[in-house]
Amino acid sequence: MARSVRWAIRELLRRGASDRPHPHLLGPGSARGVSYMPRPGDGAPRAVTLIPGDGIGPLVTGAVKQVMEAMHAPVYFETYEVHGDMESVPEEVIESVKKNKVCLKGGLATPVGGGVSSLNVQLRKELDLYASLVHCFNLPGLPTRHENVDIVVIRENTEGEYSGLEHEVVPGVVESLKVITKFCSERIAKYAFEYAYLNNRKQVTAVHKANIMKLADGLFLESCREVAKNYPGIKYNEIIVDNCCMQLVSKPEQFDVMVTPNLYGNLVANTAAGIAGGTGVMPGGNVGANHAIFEQGASAGNVGNEKLVEQKKANPVALLLSSAMMLRHLQFPSFADRLETAVKRVIEEGKYRTKDLGGSSTTQEVVDAVIEKLD
Asked: Tens digit of pLDDT for each residue in 315-343?
C-alpha cells in the first residue's frame, strides 16, 4: 500500500469523532449515521455528570438510570444536586462536567423576574455550549395533526437576547441588549450545515427578523449566506420568524434543518415540538467544542407541575431519547439504537402512555414497558 494512502487512512481513523461536528446529535429516524473503527478503550464505561434538577427532573432522570442499568450501557453517573433557585451552579458541578465532558440534566426551574439569573444559561456560557439542537419528528402510533414532520432546530446558544445584559437606565426604564457577533453567527451556521451534510439532510433554513433588526439579524443572515456557499449540495433559504411560525403550524413538512439566533430558536423549537407530538417526546442536546449537556429538547414544561410529581406520571420519553443521543456522542451507537427502538415500540403499541400522550400510565409503568422491549 502506498505510503500516502496508508497515511490518509490512518488520519481518517485518528480523526474519528474528535474533528467531526458532533454526529452524536443524530435523532431517531436520521437518514445516515457515521461509521468508524473503534480504538482500543473506546468501549470502556464512561462517567457522566447527572443533574436531576427540579420538578419532574428526578423522576425522568431516574427513569433513564433504570433503563441504562437494564441494558447494561457502559456509562455510570456522578450525581449533583442543583436547583433553579440557587444563585449559581456550584463550582464542583462545573468541574465535573469539564472532567467528564458529558452531562445528562433534568429541567431547572428559572424564577420569573426578581433578578435571579437562569442556571441553564450559566451552564451554556461557562461551558461554551454554543449549539442547541432539538429534533422534532412524528413517532409512529402517536397521532398528530400533521404527518411527515422531521425538523431539526439548531439554535445559537450563547448570545442574542439571552445574553442577560440588562440594566435600569432610570426608574421605570429598563434596557436589555441584544448581542449578535459575526464569530458566533458563523460558528452556528457551520454547525447547521455540517449537521445537514453528515445526516444526509437536503435543506437549511435561516430564521430571522432582518426586515426590522437590519444590523443584528442582518449580520446573522450575512454569516449564514457566506457559510452556505461552501455547501453547494445543500439548499439554503431564509424566512422571517413570524412567517416561520405561521408556516410551521400550517405546513411543517416543508422544513428540514433550521438555524436560528437564540430567542427565535427557543420559540421555533417549542412550536415544532408541539406540532410533532408534544414537548414530552422531543429529544435535545446542547453542545460545544469540548462538552455536551443532554436534556429534554423543548423547554416548555420541562419541570412539569406539582400534580405530575405527586402522581409520578411524568413522561420520560424525551429524556430517554436524549440519552440515546448521548450514547451516540459517547460512541456507543448500538446501545443508542436499542434504546430508541424500545421507546418507539412502546409508543407505537400504545398500551403505556402518560397523560400528555392521551394515556394514564405512571412514569414507572412506561419505564418497565421500555425495559421489556429492549432486545
From this structure: 999 999 999 999 999 989 999 999 999 99
d(CA 138, CA 114): 38
CB 294 within 8 A of CB 318: no
| pTM score, whole prediction | 0.86
Cell 480504538 identifies what position?
39
Question: 328 CB contacts (<8 Å, ≥6 apart)?
Answer: 23, 24, 25, 26, 336
* pLDDT tens for each residue of 134-144: 999 999 999 99
- The residue type of 98 is K
Separation between Cα atoms, residue 236 and residue 338, nearest integer Å: 34
**Residue 239, SS3?**
strand
* Coil, helix or strand at residue 60: helix
Residue position matching grid coordinates 442547541: 132
Beta strands in 38-188 (DSSP E): 46-51, 75-79, 102-105, 131-137, 150-156, 166-170, 173-176
What are the phi and psi torsion angles at 363 (to 5°)? -55, -45
How many other β-carbons are positioned within 10 Å of the β-carbon of residue 156?
Answer: 27
Please identify every stretch of the chain with a pLDDT value under 50, giving residue numbers as ranges: 1-24, 26-32
Q: What is d(CA 295, CA 77) in angstroms, rounded to the nearest whole number?
A: 15
Q: Which residue in this structure is represented by grid cell 474528535?
A: 18
Render 270-301 in DSSP notation, one character per residue.
HHHHHHHT-GGG-EEEEE-SS-EEEEESS-TT
Helices (H), 161-240: 182-198, 216-228
Please give the C-alpha separations between residue 182 and each of 205, 217, 238, 240, in angstroms, as whole numbers: 18, 10, 18, 19
Tell me what pLDDT residue 110 has. Answer: 78
Q: Can you tell me the distance from the alpha carbon of 340 to that of 323, in angstroms, rounded to the nearest whole number? A: 9
